């Protein structure tokens, strides 16, 4: 039971004044100031299996404090040098280790390998800085070591793209690649008033759990992701147009589409994940 949550407007202001640590827009700093929200994210993020949690962007600790309640070990990566000393003073928990580092510069595979050697499961959590949500998630999706789950807050608009279905306007290469690697569950939508300062848009918390099966051999997945991106290069063009530019060969592009049973006038946004997998398999057979 947390007696003095950091995630309230009053406590956040007190901490900011005490340490002269005002928020910086350049680092995407919007702190959660509603304890019920951090509690729900932390419970979902930690799961029930005693996994270690890696937090991305702890800030002054709104979510960190709750993660330390529910997880045996929390490792938090923060880019802003003002925050690690604050976290160490304000969060009284021996579960917490704070690392001052740009998460995008972190060697995730090395970090995960170290946890694996100790037989520890790892889950990621964070209220992500909006300006780098996609690169952070892709870094995690491309990790070659196992991750149990990723539970993160992001702009609602970006969340909608991850979970988008074919033929919707949000559906893009990101949706296909994410859905290939993970199952996505929405934990909740979050009103913008829950943040300090309050952003212009709403947010959602999504949970990604990794699928165990690899319909495409692991060593070919990078190539598969390139193909998916190429098919969406120009949304208004047909898949045939995008594919022939990618392959630099009109005849081969039309032959492959025909073999995969995809009409030449289809647009990438109409295709299911299974269509992209079939297209890739046909392409490899032709190699
Ligand atoms: N977790 C806190 C909360 O929910 O109140 C803060 C969330 S705030 C949206 C994002 C945090 O990520 C900030 O503390 C910011 O300094 C940090 N951050 C921004 N870019 C980062 C990066 N590349 N690596 C690690 N942390 C980063």
What radius of gyration results from the CA coordinates?
A: 21 Å
Helix share bin: 40-55%
**Ligands and ions found:** S-adenosylmethionine
Structural class estimated from helices and strands? alpha/beta
Average pLDDT level: 95
Task: Let me know the number of strands.
Answer: 9
Strand fraction: 15-25%
- The low-confidence parts are none
Distance between the termini: 60 Å
Q: So how many helices? A: 12
Question: What does the main sheet amount to?
Answer: 7 strands, mixed
Described by the principal axes of the CA atoms, the overall outline is: elongated
Short structural summary:
The chain contains twelve helices and nine strands.
Structure description:
- With 287 residues, this protein is an alpha/beta fold.
- The chain contains 12 helices and 9 strands.
- The chain has a 7-stranded mixed beta sheet with strand order 4-3-2-5-6-9-7, with helices on both faces. A two-stranded antiparallel ribbon has the order 1-8.
- Helix 4 (83-90) links the parallel strand 3 (74-78) and strand 4.
- Helix 8 packs antiparallel against helix 9 and helix 10 (239-247) packs across helix 11 (250-259).
- The longest helix is centred in the C-terminal third of the chain and has 14 residues, at 273-286.
- It is elongated and about 70 Å long.
- The chain starts with 8 loop residues before the first helix and ends with a helix.
- The relative contact order is 0.11.
- The mean pLDDT is 95.
């Amino acid at each position: 039971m947390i007696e003095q949550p950091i995630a309230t407007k009053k406590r956040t202001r007190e901490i900011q004044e005490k340490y002269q640590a005002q928020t910086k827009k350049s680092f995407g700093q919007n702190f959660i100031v509603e304890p019920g929200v951090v509690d729900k994210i932390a419970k979902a993020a930690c799961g029930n299996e005693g996994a270690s949690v890696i937090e991305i962007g702890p800030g002054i600790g709104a979510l960190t404090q709750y993660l330390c309640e529910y997880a045996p070990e929390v490792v938090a990566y923060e880019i802003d040098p003002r925050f690690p000393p604050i976290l160490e003073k304000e969060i009284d928990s021996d579960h917490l280790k704070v690392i001052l580092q740009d998460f995008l510069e972190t060697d995730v595979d090395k970090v995960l390998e170290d946890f694996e050697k100790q037989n520890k499961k790892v889950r990621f959590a964070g209220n992500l800085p909006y300006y780098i949500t996609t690169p952070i998630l892709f870094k995690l999706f491309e990790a070659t070591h196992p991750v149990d789950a990723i539970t993160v807050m992001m702009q609602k608009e970006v969340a909608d793209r991850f979970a988008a279905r074919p033929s919707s306007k949000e559906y893009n290469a990101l949706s296909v690649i994410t859905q290939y690697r993970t199952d996505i569950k929405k934990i909740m939508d979050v009103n913008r008033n829950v943040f300090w300062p309050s952003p212009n848009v709403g947010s959602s918390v999504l949970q990604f759990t990794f699928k165990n099966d690899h319909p495409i051999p692991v060593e070919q997945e990078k190539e598969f992701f390139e193909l998916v991106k190429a098919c969406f290069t120009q949304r208004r063009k047909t898949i045939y147009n995008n594919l022939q530019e990618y392959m630099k060969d009109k005849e081969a592009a039309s032959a492959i589409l025909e073999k995969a049973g995809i009409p030449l006038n289809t647009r990438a946004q109409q295709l299911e994940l299974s269509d992209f997998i079939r297209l890739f398999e046909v392409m490899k057979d032709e190699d």
